[in-house]
């Protein structure tokens, strides 16, 4: 049975420092939610409050309608995967996985079958007699994952579990984690500072900064429609610049900024107002013919100061009116540094974000 997780008005202080400021959210049963933000934003503190390792100074943690504030960690039926794996080095893989079951006094016969089932889930068959030091980093992480899911927790918690793995292995293990979570249907809270990781595995992303929630959205919405400069710049790459509205019509407006003049479909802004606009590098379309070079609306032009080959794309750093703008083009375009280029940007791809 999957549990709904609710956090209501959580505050947490360490001395004079307020680590969490009025944190509230409500997660549907079986969903995979990621707490995303830079180091020091409060995401791990919040995870530890949910687990019961830290007591909040205000607010409530609720599992399936039950307030958990007075419930000790060992009675909350959560399981956590740590960044360090936290495996017992002197115990075998099988013994590590069985640890939580033994603490719950599961009968030996059932314990063995549950542990073997968990090992099968994470592709550890045949490795039960090995010690952690005999395993690769990815295998150790799977042992930690099997130890967590074998107890069938109500809430599954992850504290940056892939930070110690290389980039290629991280991609594989995060898929394994997501597939396992989906198959078991366990409500999951996952902490990371890696925005690509969050976008790849989450049902819901909770973006945090300085102890506060700044946006809660599904991965596509939080990338395509960031609400603030912080979210736009932290999740993905963004060109963000202040603009001034020169005309506001029914359902659209014209704004001017150091990049040029743009017409965008928007309501709620007035002529003369100032706002920040955000343009993603991949939304800038390279103009490859003379047609369009003389257009002014929704076209920006400049000189390439740096070109970086990324394998599947080429990242261009373009100087536009003393501003550096980042654009992404197909790898087939052979563009040299110093060349003059122009880009068109669809009005629908220009977002207005809060300061």
How do the strands and helices of this protein lay out in sequence?
Elements: E1 5-14, E2 17-27, E3 32-36, H1 43-51, E4 58-63, E5 66-67, E6 78-81, H2 93-103, H3 108-121, H4 137-149, E7 155-159, H5 167-184, E8 187-192, H6 195-201, E9 204-209, E10 212-217, H7 219-224, H8 229-234, E11 239-249, E12 252-257, E13 260-264, E14 274-279, E15 284-286, E16 299-309, E17 313-320, E18 323-330, E19 340-345, E20 350-353
Parallel strand pairs: 3-8, 3-9, 6-7, 7-8
Antiparallel strand pairs: 1-2, 1-4, 4-5, 9-10, 11-12, 11-14, 12-13, 14-20, 15-19, 16-17, 16-19, 17-18
Helix pairs in contact: 2-3, 2-4, 3-4, 4-5
Cα radius of gyration in angstroms: 25 Å
Low-confidence stretches: 291-295
Could you name the CATH class of the largest domain? Alpha Beta
**Structural class based on helices, strands and sheet pairing:** alpha+beta
Averaged pLDDT: 91
Biggest beta sheet attributes: 6 strands, mixed
Brief sketch in words of this structure:
Helix content is 24%, strand content 36%. The protein is an alpha+beta fold and 355 residues long. The two termini are 42 Å apart.
